[in-house]
Structure formats: C-alpha cells, structure tokens
C-alpha cells in the first residue's frame, strides 16, 4: 500500500510541474535531498501513478489553435464512458471533466478559428445523442499558473 506523499515528494512534484525537463540534479536540489534519493523517489512516484506522464506546455496560438472556449454540456450521464471516449476522439478537445452542478461536463476546446469552433460545437458536439445542450464561453486570455 502506498504511503501518502510527504513534503519531499511534494517538492519533487512542484519542481517537475515548474520544469518537466528538470535534471535529476535540479530536482534533488529543489527537494533538498541527494541525487540518488531524488532518483529513487521519482521512480517510486512514477511507479505508484502519482506522476502520470511528462509533457510540453504549448502556446495554442503558435500551433494554429487561435480560438479557445470552455464548453459546458448537460448530458445523459448513463452513457458517460461512451461519451468520454467520443469526446476524446475530437482532436480539438484538450480537456474533459465530469462535474457536479448546473451542467454535467466541461470541455476545453482549442480550434483554429471561430468558424472551426462553431463547427465543433454546433455540428460535432450537438450530433452526439447523449448531449442534451451546450453553452460556450470564449476564452479571451488564458494563463497557466504552473
């Protein structure tokens, strides 16, 4: 059974969230531990599923995704797994979350332009039988906090 993350684990995670390409030496220094200990802890964090992958942060505008929106949806929740899989196959859908409240699902959609965004929302999403309705909030500016 996995023990909860301690302060050292949290410092390792924080450093990797700041810079996913940080060297093991930089991770060790940030966590105030030896390189050997940092390597062992990092391996354990990956093996235990605490760290689920390493990725690059990308400027969506510079990769041709100049129009972004949060799309909320009310859906037939009985078909959640199937819907989640369908949404995951839409390349412009960057993030999917099942939530509680006034709507059931929220998506982060990044499209080429507003015309492409319109197509995704009004043609692709509304064509899915389990989607009851959608609301779209355009993103004027967004910033990663990490």
From TrEMBL:
GO terms for biological process: response to amino acid. PROSITE patterns: HTH_ASNC_2. InterPro entries: ArsR-like_HTH, AsnC-type_HTH_dom, Dimeric_a/b-barrel, Tscrpt_reg_AsnC-like, Tscrpt_reg_AsnC/Lrp_C, WH-like_DNA-bd_sf, WH_DNA-bd_sf. The keyword Transcription applies. Transmembrane segments: none annotated. Pfam families: AsnC_trans_reg (PF01037), HTH_24 (PF13412). It comes from the Bacteria. The keyword DNA-binding applies. Signal peptide: none annotated. Keywords: DNA-binding, Transcription, Transcription regulation. One of its GO terms (molecular function) is sequence-specific DNA binding. SUPFAM superfamilies: Dimeric alpha+beta barrel, Winged helix' DNA-binding domain. One of its GO terms (cellular component) is cytosol. Residues 5-66 form the HTH asnC-type domain. PANTHER family: LEUCINE-RESPONSIVE REGULATORY PROTEIN, TRANSCRIPTIONAL REGULATOR AZLB. This is Lrp/AsnC family transcriptional regulator.
